Amino acid sequence: MSPGYRGRFAPSPTGPLHAGSLVAALASWLDARAHGGRWLVRIEDIDTPRCVPGADATILQQLATCGLLPDEPPTWQSRRGDLYQAALDALVARGAAYPCGCSRKDIEQALAAQGRPRIRGEEAPYPGTCRTGLHGKPARAWRLRVADGMVAWTDRRLGAQQQDVARAVGDFVLRRADGLWAYQLAVVVDDDAQGITHVVRGEDLADNTPRQLLLQRALGLAAPSYLHTPLVLGADGEKLSKQNGALALDLSDPLRTLHAAASVLGLPAHAGPIGDAVASWVQAWPFLQSAGD
Fold first, then answer.
1. Which residues are annotated as a binding site for L-glutamate?
2. Whole-angstrom distance, CA of residue 181 vs CA of residue 142
3. 141-196 residue pLDDT tens
4. Which residues are annotated as a binding site for Zn(2+)?
């Protein structure tokens, strides 16, 4: 058991939970319970243009209906801007972050000039244009200076992973041109502030991990353990998401809906009530770590 374990589920309130997000919620809850730890819910609502009014309350109610209750009151990222500003100020003071005046068009033109045209559907790596100054352009965003870009880590499900962040992403955004905080900075600051020791989330977020590890190093923060769960795919073979029309959870029969999520995680069906079912899944959870891991 790991009494110091602190995990979290961190949904974005861009709509109600769907089958894919329930898998991540259930997995993070089970991992916390299997380790004898605490489970938190954080509403990641910093991307305000995408947030749907009332979706946060809907998500919390959906979790409650499934018996997934947090051990502490939920938090909202939109109320934590002072923490993000303090982190950015610390990075700027250390020379680890700098202002950027590039638009998307500027970045694509710079990459093309370097013989690195943007690949359709992939994020354009930042070419480093403003590393040495704004060159007369007004500051639009703030970026982390990626010095040593090769990052290796071990995922508890996926195994050994690595990414050359400098080549794949480049100096990445900490505060956006529209003034909103970037996900990478907010999640790293919040995980540290809330004492998160274990992050359990969907496999689609695995490629965020190396950037977050670099940020943790730059801020002098401890890195949590990571586990990325299998994705739920739609009929077209693409990841089920709100963007491609994923339907809200059908909670007319919560146990049936939880069984579907548990099956994605390789857990057996259970005929009893919700409490008995989740208790059996805690016992069957395959990703236990020792307290020293």
1. 8-12, 44, 183, 201
2. 10
3. 999 999 877 899 999 999 999 999 999 999 999 999 999 999 999 999 999 999 99
4. 100, 102, 126, 130
